[in-house]
Design brief:
The strands form eight sheets. Strands 4, 25, 28, 30, 31, 32, 33, 34 and 39 form a nine-stranded antiparallel β-sheet that branches. Strands 24, 26, 27, 29, 35, 36, 37, 38 and 40 form a nine-stranded antiparallel β-sheet that branches. The chain folds into two domains: 314 residues, 5 Propeller (Tachylectin-2, Chain A), CATH 2.115.10; 203 residues, Jelly Rolls (Sandwich), CATH 2.60.120. With 543 residues, it is an all-beta fold. Helix content is 0%, strand content 47%.
C-alpha cells in the first residue's frame, strides 16, 4: 500500500512513461533553470530526482520571462528507441484592456520537441512545433504515425479562451507538423480544457484532459472515439478524478493527469493536486504530484478503484520488488564541481554570470546582480520546499560596503512573494541584518523589519518553517542563536496568495541570494546549506 501517495519534491503537471522496468515522471519547472524535472522509480513507491534535460541556451532561454511562465507541462514519451520530450516555453501571460472593456488576452506560447536515446543523456536541440496554445503532448500510434495535441488559445474578446483540443500530425522526417490542425474535442461545460493525453486500448482512442482550471475546480475528464479525429464521446461520469465540490477531500485541486500501465497490466494515474492548510485555504507546498491506482471497467471506461472519482490518501502498490534509493544528505557542502541536483536558479542559461563553484573551492559564490524581483539576471540559488515543517540553515561570508549590496537566506515564491533575511550595510548603523518581505495581498509592496547591527565576519542564517509560521534566526560562528521576534506569514508563499488572474504556479523555494544594485558585482560566499524536514507527527513543536 502506498500511503499518502504524494511524491515528495515533485513539481506539478506530471507526465509518466514506463520503459522496461523503469518509470519516469517529467514535471514543470516554470522560470527555474535548468528546465523540466525528471524523477525515476522502479517500483512506483520510491523515487529519486534523476535529471533536468533542458540545460543549454539553445534549448531554453527564459531571460525576461514573467513569474510562473517559462516551462509549462512537459510530456515525456518513448518510441523508436528514443525518449521524446515536448514542452511549452511561455513568454507572456497578460490581458489587454481595449476601450475600457475586457479586451484580448494576449499570451505567447512556443512548443518544442527534444529527443535523446538516454533519459539522463545530452538531449537534442529543440524542434519548433507551434505556438497555438500550451500543454502539448505527443502520441505515437500503432501504425508508426505521430500526432501532436495541445489546447488551442483564442485571444478574441467574447470567445472561449480555451478553444478546445487540437490534433496535428508530426513528421519525424520533416521535423515539422504536417497537414491541417483539427479541433477534436471542444471540452465540457466545466471549461478551461487543457492538458491533453491520448492513448489507444482495444481499438479505442482515449483522450484525457484537465478542466476547470488548476485551482479548486480542477478535474480529469475522459472521452473516447474509434477514430483519432473523433467524434469523442464523454465518459459516463464525465470527470473520472476530481475534488471539485468536495471541500472535505484531503487532496484538493486534483487534475492534469497522465496514465501508465505496469508490465502486469495495472493502470496508475499521476496527477496534480494540492494540500491546503487547515482553515487557511492556501497550499504552501504548491501544486504537487500524486499517484493512484485506477481500474478499467467491463464497459471499457477507466475509474478510481472505488468508483467515487476522488483522490485518495492511500492506494495499492503494484507489488513490484521494493527499490529504495539512498537518502540524500541534509547538508550540501558545495565541494563538487557542479551544483547539487536539488538546486536551481532563475531564468538564465548563463549560470557563470550568477554563481561559481570554482572561485573559492568548497564554497558557492554568488555574484551580486540585479534586484531579488528581477526577471533577468538574478543571483538566487534555491531548492523547492518539500514538507510542511522544514529547518534550513546556511553559513555565509559576505562583506557589503553600502546599502545597495545585500545577501542572505530567502524563502521565495516569486518577485512579489518572499521573505528575505539579509545582511547589508547602512551609513548610520553599519553592517546589519534585517528581513525584507514582499506581500502580495497587501497594499504595501514590501516591508522591512528593524535593522540589527552585527559585527564583521561570517554568519549563520536560519529559517524554521512550520506550516504557515516562519521564524528567522542568526548567529556568529562562536555565538548563540539570536531569534528575530516577529513570526512571518509563510502562507503568502502559495498559489492562492495573489491578486485574481495573476499566474501563480511555481511553489515555494528556499535558498541563497546576493544583490549588488550598484553594478559593482560584490560577491557572497556560502560554505554549506542544510535542509532538514521535520515530522509533525513525531515532533510536538511542529504543529
Amino acid at each position: 500500500m502506498i500511503r499518502n501517495p504524494i511524491l515528495p519534491g515533485f513539481n506539478p503537471d506530471p507526465s509518466i512513461v514506463r520503459v522496461g522496468a523503469d518509470y519516469y515522471i517529467a514535471t514543470s519547472t516554470f522560470e527555474w533553470f535548468p528546465g523540466v524535472q525528471i524523477h525515476h522509480s522502479r517500483d512506483l513507491v520510491h523515487w529519486r530526482l534523476l535529471t533536468r534535460p533542458l540545460r543549454r541556451e539553445s534549448q531554453l532561454n527564459m531571460l525576461g520571462a514573467p513569474d510562473s511562465c517559462g516551462v509549462w507541462a512537459p510530456c515525456l514519451t518513448h518510441a523508436d528507441g528514443l525518449f521524446h520530450l515536448i514542452y511549452t516555453d511561455v513568454k507572456r501571460y497578460g490581458r489587454t484592456s481595449v476601450g475600457g472593456a475586457s479586451g484580448a488576452s494576449l499570451r505567447d506560447f512556443h512548443n518544442y520537441l527534444v529527443t535523446c536515446d538516454r533519459i539522463d543523456g545530452e538531449w537534442s536541440d529543440p524542434v519548433f512545433l507551434n505556438s497555438s496554445g500550451f500543454d502539448p503532448s505527443l502520441f505515437h500510434d500503432e501504425d508508426g504515425r505521430k500526432y501532436l495535441l495541445n489546447m488551442l488559445w483564442d485571444h478574441r474578446p467574447g470567445h472561449n479562451r480555451f478553444a478546445g483540443i487540437v490534433l496535428q500530425e508530426y513528421s519525424p522526417q520533416a521535423r515539422a507538423l504536417v497537414g491541417e490542425r483539427r479541433v477534436i474535442f471542444p471540452g465540457t461545460a466545466l471549461g478551461l480544457t487543457e492538458a491533453p493525453h491520448l492513448y489507444k486500448r482495444d481499438g479505442w482512442y482515449y483522450l484525457l484532459t484537465a478542466e476547470g482550471g488548476t485551482g479548486w475546480n480542477h478535474a480529469v475528464t475522459m472521452a473516447r472515439s474509434r477514430s483519432i479525429d473523433g467524434p469523442y464521446e464523454l465518459h459516463p461520469d464525465t470527470h473520472i478524478l476530481t475534488s471539485f465540490n468536495r471541500p472535505d477531500a484531503p487532496l484538493q485541486r486534483a487534475g492534469h493527469a497522465d496514465l501508465v500501465e505496469t508490465a502486469e497490466g495495472e493502470t496508475y494515474a499521476v496527477y496534480l493536486c494540492g494540500r491546503p492548510l487547515p482553515n487557511r485555504g492556501r497550499c504552501v507546498l504548491g501544486r504537487e504530484t500524486a499517484i493512484q491506482r485506477m481500474v478499467w471497467g467491463d464497459d471499457g471506461w477507466l475509474r478510481t478503484m472505488d468508483g467515487q472519482g476522488l483522490p485518495s490518501l492511500t492506494t495499492p502498490s503494484p507489488g513490484l520488488p521494493a527499490h529504495p534509493f539512498p537518502t540524500a544528505p541534509a547538508r550540501s557542502d558545495f565541494d563538487d564541481p557542479s551544483l547539487p541536483l536539488d538546486f536551481q536558479w532563475l531564468r538564465s542559461p548563463h549560470p557563470e554570470e550568477l554563481f561559481s563553484l570554482f572561485a573559492r573551492p568548497g564554497w558557492l559564490r554568488l555574484y551580486g546582480r540585479e534586484t531579488i524581483g528581477s526577471q533577468f539576471r538574478q543571483a538566487l540559488v534555491a531548492r523547492r520546499q518539500q514538507a510542511f515543517c522544514v529547518s534550513v540553515a546556511t553559513f555565509m561570508d559576505f562583506h557589503p560596503r553600502h546599502f545597495q549590496q545585500m545577501a542572505g537566506l530567502v524563502c521565495y515564491y516569486g518577485g512579489s512573494k518572499f521573505h528575505y533575511l539579509y545582511v547589508s550595510h547602512d551609513e548610520a548603523r553599519g553592517r546589519h541584518i534585517r528581513v525584507m518581505s514582499a506581500l502580495p495581498d497587501s497594499t504595501q509592496a514590501d516591508a522591512f523589519t528593524e535593522m540589527i547591527p552585527i559585527p564583521e565576519g561570517p554568519i549563520i542564517l536560519r529559517a524554521e518553517l512550520d506550516y504557515e509560521r516562519l521564524r528567522f534566526a542568526f548567529r556568529l560562528p562562536d555565538g548563540d542563536w539570536v531569534w528575530l521576534p516577529r513570526i512571518f506569514d509563510a502562507s503568502i508563499l502559495s498559489d492562492e496568495a495573489t491578486s485574481p488572474g495573476a499566474p501563480n504556479f511555481t511553489g515555494a523555494f528556499i535558498g541563497m541570494a546576493c544583490q549588488d544594485m550598484a553594478g559593482s558585482g560584490v560577491s557572497a560566499d556560502f560554505d554549506w546549506f542544510d535542509y532538514q524536514e521535520r515530522d509533525y507527527r513525531a515532533d510536538p513543536t511542529c504543529r
